[in-house]
Every structure is written in structure tokens, then in C-alpha cells.
Amino acid sequence: MAKPEKLPLLNDYIFKRTFIQEGTIGILKDLLEAILEVKITNLEVRNSEIPKELIE
């Protein structure tokens, strides 16, 4: 079986698909808490739509 291709999280589309979809907000919260070393009590994501030009 071939190894899955690694995608760069620095790409805006890849980042949004990974962290800003329903069900993945907890992963984003954990990532931010680890980087910032603070406890986040309320995380609200706005404008989580991925622009159509990035999808194509």
C-alpha cells in the first residue's frame, strides 16, 4: 500500500478543510492552546466557507 500524500497545512484551503469544518473545531482549539499556552474557553469560527476559487 502506498503512503498517503502529505499536504501542507500552510495552504489556506488545506488548513480550513482540516481545522474549520463542523466536528473539527476541537482540534483547532487544542492546536491554538498548545501554541499559545493559554486556556481557550470560547472559540467561535466565523466565515468558515472555503472560497470557490480555492476549491477548483
Structure notes:
It is a single chain. The protein is mainly α and 56 residues long. The protein has a domain at 7-44. It has three helices and no strands. It has helices at residues 12-19, 25-36, 52-55. The mean pLDDT is 81.
What order do the helices and strands come in, and which of them pair?
Blueprint: H1 12-19, H2 25-36, H3 52-55
Strand content: under 5%
Secondary structure class reads mainly alpha
Helix share of residues? 40-55%
Give the oligomeric state.
Answer: single chain
Mean pLDDT: 81
Number of helices: 3
Provide key terms for this protein.
56 residues; mainly alpha; 3 helices; globular
Produce a short descriptive summary.
This protein is an all-alpha fold and 56 residues long.
